[in-house]
Inverse folding.
């Protein structure tokens, strides 16, 4: 009984994905209710994907070049955001005066979506790597700070008292008690900021760039090549998925005990 | 009870004001020292901000643009709330619904909402419809995910007790699963709101002819830094008001939930 029900559920799952692909195929290739300029058929998408691997038309670079360009910028911005954001979050949460001094400005800054900074960065820094990396940095930086801050603040007072009773200095308490407590929160923050970094990079590339996946799908739209757009979207989704899987793996290896 | 200001509170207010003032002074002196004309001084920006409230930029004043942006967010967001919560809750409780929709949802979920912009424009043109669609996509995912997580985490003991008292499956769903996932749904609603607000900006910056995102791009096209920063301040204020409103709603409706702050 139990086995047969689980089997039924598997069948339903498989059917639903098959049905989705079938409907997509039927509406585009067979019945032609949707023009290929707005939605290409799944077969056409596969063809374009293979072609895009070596062909530079229509946007001047192969898929691999676009992927590398996007990865390079987003990972640079993300790493910088973590390297600066996590220590800042720790300092803000641990030193009371510093917290009172920086929190209002930070709270104001984080109400503005990083995407709103794109046009200013383009004017100030041009459309090169620097402008995009600073947008990515900004969007990765904010979740890192917020989550680290929450994590440090979540340290149980009892644990701090124990450390103090045993004569630990304030820095030692921070390093041995508060930071390990905050580690799961920090990882959550890194996951959120990786996601944000990847998203804002797309916006930056769509608004002003000459390569990268965001640029590719934007060109696909301008040239009415819907197949290129869909290939780009699938690649974006796939890379986003891989990146967060890597972070998940790192979390399970580094965070012991759990929250 | 005598009204006295708590010295700790006093300290936090004073330090907050100091931090803002020192930021502004730093900005102003940096402008004076370098004598640059590329970047506006804080006074220019503040004057510009208040002027934009009454003088129209393009077709409307800033208030009008914000109202347009807000209407877009409202339509997409409400639709996403309706469908996302329904899908998430049913996916969590009914195994067949989960089997049918979870794989599809997981397949489409990793695609960033902004990646839908070109396709949405190809499908629905540059009018309002494509923006509603994008905002819908951006807020649908967090709504569904959180409603799903909430309904899966429904207390097994409560469900067992209700079953023992003879509750039917539908009753279990409406009387236990739905109410117990409300806190989770609220936290999803907050994520969804900030996602929706951000996607609206991106969509308006890429293609539109009014709305607060357009004001920034219009500033970029004529190289008017003051207008861009002034509209960013407006965006910040509205974003802050939206988030605060959401938190107030949560506090009002979830008085019973002592997990939240």
């Amino acid at each position: 009984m139990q086995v047969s029900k689980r089997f039924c559920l598997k069948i339903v799952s498989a059917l639903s994905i098959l049905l989705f692909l079938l409907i997509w195929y039927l509406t585009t290739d067979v019945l032609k209710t949707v023009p290929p300029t707005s939605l290409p058929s799944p077969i056409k998408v596969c063809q374009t994907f293979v072609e895009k691997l070596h062909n530079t038309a229509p946007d001047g670079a192969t898929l691999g070049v676009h992927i590398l360009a996007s990865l390079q910028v987003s990972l640079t911005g993300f790493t910088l955001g973590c390297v600066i954001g996590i220590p800042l979050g720790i300092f803000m949460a641990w030193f009371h005066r510093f917290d009172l001094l920086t929190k209002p400005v930070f709270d104001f800054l984080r109400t503005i979506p990083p995407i709103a900074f794109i046009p200013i960065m383009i004017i100030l820094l041009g459309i090169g790597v620097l402008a995009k990396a600073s947008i990515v940095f900004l969007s990765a930086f904010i979740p890192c700070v917020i989550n680290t801050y929450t994590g440090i603040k979540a340290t149980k007072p009892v644990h701090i008292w124990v450390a103090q009773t045993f004569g630990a200095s304030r820095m030692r308490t921070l390093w041995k008690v508060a930071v390990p407590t905050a580690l799961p929160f920090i990882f959550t923050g890194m996951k959120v900021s990786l996601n944000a970094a990847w998203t804002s990079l797309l916006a930056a590339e769509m608004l002003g760039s000459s390569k990268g996946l965001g640029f590719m799908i934007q060109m696909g739209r301008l040239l009415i090549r819907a197949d290129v757009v869909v290939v780009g979207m699938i690649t974006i989704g796939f890379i986003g998925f891989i990146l967060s899987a890597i972070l998940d793996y790192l979390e399970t290896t580094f965070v012991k005990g759990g929250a | 009870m005598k009204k006295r200001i708590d010295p700790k509170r006093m300290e936090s207010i004073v330090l907050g004001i100091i931090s803002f003032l020192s930021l502004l002074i730093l900005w102003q002196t940096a402008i004076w020292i370098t004598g640059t004309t590329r970047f506006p001084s804080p006074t220019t920006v503040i004057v510009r901000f208040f002027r934009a409230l009454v003088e129209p930029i393009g077709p409307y004043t800033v208030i009008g643009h914000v109202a347009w942006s807000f209407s877009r967010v409202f339509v997409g967001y409400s639709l996403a709330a309706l469908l996302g919560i329904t899908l998430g809750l049913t996916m969590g409780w009914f195994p067949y619904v989960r089997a049918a929709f979870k794989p599809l949802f997981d397949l489409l979920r990793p695609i960033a909402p902004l990646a839908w912009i070109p396709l949405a424009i190809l499908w629905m043109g540059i009018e309002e419809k494509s923006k509603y669609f994008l905002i819908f996509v951006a807020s649908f995912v967090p709504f569904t995910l959180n409603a799903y997580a909430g309904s899966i985490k429904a207390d097994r003991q409560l469900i067992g007790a209700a079953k023992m008292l003879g509750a039917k499956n539908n009753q279990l769903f409406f009387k236990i699963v739905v109410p117990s996932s409300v806190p989770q749904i609220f936290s999803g609603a907050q994520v969804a709101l900030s996602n929706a607000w951000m996607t609206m900006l991106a969509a308006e910056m890429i293609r539109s002819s009014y709305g607060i995102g357009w004001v920034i791009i219009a500033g970029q096209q004529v190289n008017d830094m003051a207008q861009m920063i002034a509209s960013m301040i407006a965006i910040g204020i509205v974003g802050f008001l939206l988030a605060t409103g959401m938190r107030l709603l949560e506090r009002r409706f979830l008085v019973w939930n002592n997990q939240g702050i």
About this structure: Chain A touches chain B through 58 residues (CB under 8 Å). The mean pLDDT of chain A is 87. Residues 56 and 101 of chain A are 52 Å apart (CA to CA). Residues 170-207 of chain A form the longest helix (38 residues).
